[in-house]
Each structure stands twice: as C-alpha cells, then as structure tokens.
C-alpha cells in the first residue's frame, strides 16, 4: 500500500469515529440475506478523481478499507477483502462524478456503516447503514378523525305527503291549531253562558168580547 493510500486510510479511521454519531442523517437499508445493494457517492465537480470506500462493522467493532476506485474505473481492493463481493465503478457526467459500490451476497455479519471519502476533496458524503436480514420498521398509518354527521335542515314542500323526517314540522302545527280552536270554542261558550237570560214573551190569548 502506497504512502498516499496509507494517509487516506488513517483519515478514514478518524472519520469512522465521528460519522457513527450522524446515524440520523444517513440512509438505512434493509437488504435480504444473500441480497445485493448499490451505494453511490456523488462529487459536485470533476476534481474528485479518486475515491476510497470503507465500512465500519458493528459486530466486530472494526474499520475495514474496502477498495480504491479512480474516475477511469481502475480499482484496487484492500487486504483480506473478497474481490468477488465488492465491485466499484465510476460515471462522469457533465457536472458531476458518481462513484458506485456494489455489494454482493450480503450476510448478517456485514451489518454496519458504509461510506466513501474523496482523496482531493474536503468533504465526506453521507453514508449508508446496512442491516441485512432485518425487517424494516413498520410505519403506523395516521389516525383519521371521523367527523360527526351534520344534520341538514329539512325543507318540506307543501304536498299531500311530507318527506320522512319532516313529520314533526306538520304534526306540531296541526296540534297547535286544534288546541287554539278548542280554547276559542270554550271561551265562546263561557261568554254566552254568562249573559243574562232574556225573558220569553208569552202570547196570551185575548178574551173575546162578551
């Protein structure tokens, strides 16, 4: 390993101590056992000609240098790294350079933090937390508040049959009219019962002249 690569590896070790504290800002992936994942690091300009991929394994609490990739697609793996399981590539666009790391045959012991560092760029892209074989957390559906049904005003039309729900608008006025009529009739009878009785004129027969 060259001196520049060793310096970059030392810088990655220092970064791995800091980056796990930013767990909330990284992407969390839940691949299946023996599944694959593709991780990407994007450089905003063409000054990022080289990138170093590394990972921090939670099970062993160790940092591993995975591979080195340049913009031409040339790659070099770290020591004791399975070449067949880690593939690197680079894509140069008009304004950005995108480096991709493809992980193959993921196992539970591969769980940890994965990220990259650009050799000539003072920036650390946001990494990925990979949890093979772990089910993603289920998000509870939002509770929907049910609105109480609003009673619509009953608009009754003058017809022979009132619509259902409007009987009270016809029944109560009818009862009120009957009560008013009964009170008026009782008052009239009471009024005439209090009047003085008039004498009846009896027609007396006139005696015939004798």
UniProtKB/TrEMBL annotation:
InterPro entries in UniProt: CD8B (IPR042414), Ig-like_dom (IPR007110), Ig-like_dom_sf (IPR036179), Ig-like_fold (IPR013783), Ig_V-set (IPR013106)
BP term (GO), one: regulation of immune response
Positions of the Ig-like domain: 20-116
Domain of life: Eukaryota
Primary location recorded for the protein, binned into one broad class: membrane
Subcellular location: Membrane
GO molecular function: coreceptor activity; MHC class I protein binding
This protein's GO CC annotations: cell surface; membrane
Keywords noted in UniProt: Adaptive immunity, Disulfide bond, Glycoprotein, Immunity, Immunoglobulin domain, Membrane, Signal, Transmembrane, Transmembrane helix
Transmembrane feature ranges: 169-192
PROSITE patterns named in the record: IG_LIKE
Membrane topology field: Single-pass type I membrane protein
One Pfam family here: V-set
Signal sequence residues: 1-24
Keyword Transmembrane helix in record: yes
PANTHER family (UniProt xref): T-CELL SURFACE GLYCOPROTEIN CD8 BETA CHAIN (PTHR11292), T-CELL SURFACE GLYCOPROTEIN CD8 BETA CHAIN-RELATED (PTHR11292:SF7)
Protein name: Ig-like domain-containing protein
